[in-house]
Amino acid sequence: MKVKQHTIGKQVTISGVGLHTGVDANMTFLPAPPNHGYKFQRIDMEGAPIVDADVDNVVDVSRGTTIEQSGARVNTVEHVLAALVGLEIDNVLIQLDGPEPPIMDGSSIQFINILEEAGLKEQNALRRFFEVPESIHYRDSSREVEMAALPLDDYRVTVMVDYNSPVLGSQHASITDISQFKAEIASCRTFCFLHELEMLYKQNLIQGGDLNNAIVVVDRVVTDEELEGLAQMFNKPKVEVRKEGILNNVELRYKNEPARHKLLDVVGDLALVGRPLKGQILAARPGHAANVAFAKKLKRAMEKVGPSHIPHYDPKLPPVLDINQIGNILPHRYPFQLLDKIIYLDETVVAGVKNVTINEPFFMGHFPNNPVMPGVLQVEAMAQTGGILVLSTVDDPENYWTYFLGIESCKFRKMVLPGDTLVFKCELLSPIRRGIAKMKGEAYVGNTLVCEAVMTASIVRKEA
Questions:
Q1: Where does this protein hold Zn(2+) (predicted)?
Q2: Confidence (pTM)
Q3: Among 37, 39, 98, 397, which residue's Cβ finds the most Cβ atoms within 10 Å?
Q4: Marked catalytic residue, from 6, 20, 288, 312
Q5: By the 8 A CB rule, do 57 and 69 touch?
Q6: DSSP assignment of 199-230
Q7: What are the C-alpha distances in Å from 16 to residues 8, 76, 188?
Q8: DSSP conformation class of 143
Q9: Which has the closest alpha carbon to 311: 123, 454, 122, 447?
Q10: Rounded to an integer, what distance in angstroms lies between the CA atom of residue 320 and that of residue 345?
């Protein structure tokens, strides 16, 4: 799995009709900054409201997953989200001039293609995975649905479907690595049973269905009159039933294409948890209602891990900047080179790490026999973290100095001891003007805030 966050390299647009609304729409994918996540924007509505792709925004799961926020609704988001997860894209803004993404051929492959045309762009931020900490289960006895997430240092999905249908029978599909999604799952199309078609049509759903974007499974004897009615409903000259029990609209791409599409739906719906997942997902007879209920359960477990505003540090992952790269930017050297890693960096926020060890030179003289890291050095390390952010705004940081101009509202909330790992976060409070930067700095040990301050610094070009 990719370690760093990714967005797309350029803006791209795809157009088509929505499956259930029948409304034509243009959907534009735009690059987004780190930690942005997936957001939809209804540019056809006043104020162009944003709808976060969040499971808590789900308002309908009838034949698709619909989200709503601030009065703006987006229907059938799962195929688009599945494509983004399958390509391991973390941050994108999706603009729509209609209520529903285009259904295209009923799969995710055309979204995959347009996103690959845009290209993937690596970002200066580590992906913040939700690693399933222990087995999490969901069951709906009334629908014979069972889903589980098991701890795993990867993302694997296995799906079983059984509709008591002589046509479909029992089917399984699985991927053992998310990189398999494009080749094995993305082209698998949505499906429904013939007996559902009329009901869906009467409910004003599948208004954009034209038998070119779904597999129709025929699970009973159909009269000629019914076939004529279907042909009129979908503006086709003739509709026939093949011996395999599939309407003559499409050829199956895989014998277990329905099961593979259900896996696609699971991947798309679980994207609504809000972070890339690490775990093994097992799903028996899943549907959108179960997927969403399970996603909510995963999100509640994720929220127990810690506040989202605290920088996440996973020592197993490579840094954005290592100690050598930091040394190429900052002029500080031993014993005042206090940063070990930069784990996040964008235009306004930076996060860095310092491992506090007993062999630090200041412990020899600062509170002998009671080793406590001096607060002024915590602030210095935090300032060096902010210095990386400020110097990242110039093309030749080696030709600049950064100087402290002021410290405000500084508080030390908890002692920092040998063995602690300090995680610093600095965020610009306003744009840098005339070389002056003002930022809020925070230092954490685990989820505990140990130090904070508002710092002002000046960036000055070195004299030749």
A1: 79, 261, 265
A2: 0.81
A3: 98
A4: 288
A5: yes
A6: HHHHTT--TT--SSSSEEE--S---HHHHHHH
A7: 21, 13, 18
A8: G
A9: 447
A10: 7
Determine if residue 312 is labeled as part of a ligand binding site. Answer: no
Beta strands 38-42; 92-96: pairing state: parallel
Is 265 annotated to bind a ligand? Reply is yes
What's the rounded Cα separation, in Å, for the pair 415 and 12? Answer: 50
User: Which residues, other chains included, contact 308 with Cβ-Cβ below 8 Å and sequence gap of 6+?
Assistant: none
Sign of the CA dihedral running 303, 300, 99, 209: positive
Q: What are phi and psi of 217, to 5 degrees?
A: -95, 125
Q: Taking 60 as the threshold, does the pLDDT of residue 206 lie above it?
A: no
For residue 463, what are the CA distances in angstroms to 204, 395, 400, 433, 460? Answer: 72, 17, 9, 20, 9
Mind listing the pLDDT tens digit for each residue in 232-268?
Answer: 776 677 777 765 577 765 678 998 999 999 999 999 9
**62 is written with which tokens?**
């009838």
3-state secondary structure of 354: strand
* Catalytic (active site) residue 366: yes
What is the C-alpha separation between 339 and 215, in angstroms, rounded? 57
How many residues are recorded in the chain? 464
Q: Is 309 a catalytic residue?
A: no
What is the rounded CA–CA span in Å between residue 384 and residue 292?
43
Instruction: Give residue for tokens 């647009």.
Output: 13
Q: Which of 36, 172, 332, 366 is catalytic?
A: 366
What per-residue confidence (pLDDT) applies to 236? 72
The answer to whether 6 is annotated as binding is no
Beta pairing, strands 136-140 & 145-150: antiparallel
Q: What one-character-per-residue DSSP string does 147-212 give? A: EEEE--SSEEEEEEEE-S-TTT-EEEEEESSGGGHHHHTTTPPPEEEHHHHHHHHHTT--TT--SS
